[in-house]
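ok here's 40S ribosomal protein S1, seq below lol
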Amino acid sequence: RGAGNKRRAVDAFAKKEWYDLKAPSVFETRNIGKTVVNRSAGLKNADDSLKGRVIELSLGDLNKDEDQAFRKMKLKVDSIQGKNCLTSFYGMDMTSDKLRSLVRKWQSLIESHVDVRTTDGYLVRLFAIAFTKRRPQQVKKTTYAKSSQIREIRKKMFEIMTREAGSCDLKQLVQKFVPEAIGREIEKATRNIYPLQNVFIRKAKILKSPKFELGKLLEQHGGVQAATEDAGVKVAKGTDFVEPAPLTSV
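and the structure came out like this:
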């Protein structure tokens, strides 16, 4: 083939554009990155390609706290406002290295899960994990709980998760994950059955969401102004400036 038949190299990003990803106002960091998409062309709309994308981030980055880095948060793109992708909470998990560091010899591991509906209509599945610990002045090396005690602890875990998640909306539930409020409640309630340590909500995932409402999503992002803050600043028209008349000749 001659030199004229060679295909011209085309930049892969020439027909793409970048959008900013925005986290809900419950997190400290709002600008969480950028995502790329093919430009709108014909019947293909760029917004449709962006909606439904799921982003996984470290809670340590979202809240600027390294102590929370063992939590992974999933955020889902629900709406596009200008060049901003507005996300909502979609799930939470724990890193595998943190989970492995909790599992040790001579103790019982207790797990429980429950499906619960929040006050704003989200059906959420919560997974809890806990480990037994030594009683005060205990000499024996092992801290194995009896099966009857494990059943009672699971019952308490189920009740507390149902109560805590069922009495608040999704935003308030996410706020409870950060300080381990539900884990502390479980630890306190099961003290008389068997003392526990390292009690966590290990995982949370959205099973079913209510009908999408843009107003509620904008509330999660601190209102319309906060959600579209990069669109520019409104400038008041001055009254003292008069445009000069066009010149008839130069």
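fwiw The chain has one domain: 16-230. kinda neat tbh
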